[in-house]
Amino acid sequence: MSSRKKCSLVLGLVFTLIFAVAFVMPTSVYSQAGKQIEWRMQNMFPTGDLSYELQGKRIVDSLNKNLAGKLHITQYLPGQIVPADQMFDSLSKGVFDAAILGSSWRVGFTPEAVVAFGLPMGWENVDQVFEFFYKFGMLKMQRTVCAEKNVLYACPLPCSPVTITSNFPFRKVEDIKGKKIWSIAGTAAYVKNLGGAPVTFPPSEIYMGMKLGTLDGMIYSLAELETAGYKEVVKYINWPATVDPNSVEFDISLKSWNALPPDVQKTIEDTLVEIGPPMAKEYIAEDHKGVEAAVKVGVQEIHMDPSEVPKARAAAVKVWADFAARSPRTAQCVQMLKDFLVTKGVKVD
């Protein structure tokens, strides 16, 4: 056999082997070889929850589209990588790349997170949330806080008003005495100040808790009355809202973030800023649909007696003071919110 034929045979075998390996190679490994980075993002919230169905999917779809060939993100359900209550700690250790989680779930690591979630009876609409973060310095503050835990606080994700939806009418403060209410961090402190019994576990368990009667109520966004079926297990929507709106967050492992090229980082930042406000307004629209759907099946809207509202506000303001006492920087975050709300004409005491 001539040397030319031998060379051609060898080259043929090499190319055959390359194509064979590429065919059987796992997608993530093959993508890395092709310079596309594969990320895993776990969502704290289950299917049916708009933080999964709307926020999670919109972020993943938008980033995958804008970064096609450079970065691809796969969204995972709560518990598919780590248990929901371990997500922030695991993200800080680089177990996975990104997460959507409730800010209140990291209060044990960063007490300043209670302000990122929304303090009871604080800001009053979605526009105020974005202005507070992007123009009044709270984004920079939360990034500083999370960076100390090896996490990038990528952006706030405002949801909808969270109010006490329950199996009892909440007309007077005394109505909540002893009632078991799903809540967390700042909202849990609010429930306790009112005389209720706060209960916390992963959001995926709320439906059964209400159905089985192990909960009397929950402080949760209202869109899920329809999308997650909570209208089937509650009887009352109680006003005023506890937080209006609450905000979850999109976080990224600093290890994963720092490994990205600058142009990819910029595209992520620009995309999140672009989709944030319209996504929040879409959530609010779904919120109205949730209330309408619940009312149609007999759920009643209850408005607290006006004479009782100052008592509820006093319980909320006490939450602000108690969290401010936890650390100087948490106190700074609380003061930032107070200063901001003053510019909006919102009473804070």
State the assembly state of the protein chains: single chain
Q: Please tell me the total number of domains.
A: 2
How much beta, percentage-wise? Answer: 15-25%
Main sheet record: 6 strands, mixed
The beta-strand count equals: 11
What order do the SSEs take from the amino end to the carboxyl end, as H and E? HHEHEHEHHHEEEHEHEHEEHHEHH
Q: What is the average of the pLDDT values? A: 91
Shape estimate:
globular
Helix content: 40-55%
CATH topology of the largest domain: D-Maltodextrin-Binding Protein, domain 2
At CATH level 2, the architecture of the largest domain is 3-Layer(aba) Sandwich
CATH homologous superfamily heading of the largest domain: Bacterial extracellular solute-binding protein, family 7
Q: Order of strands side by side in the largest beta sheet?
A: 7-6-8-5-9-11
Helix count, DSSP H or I runs of 4 or more residues:
14
- Which radius of gyration do the C-alpha atoms yield? 24 Å
CATH class of the largest domain: Alpha Beta
Query: What gap, in angstroms, lies between the N and C termini?
Result: 93 Å
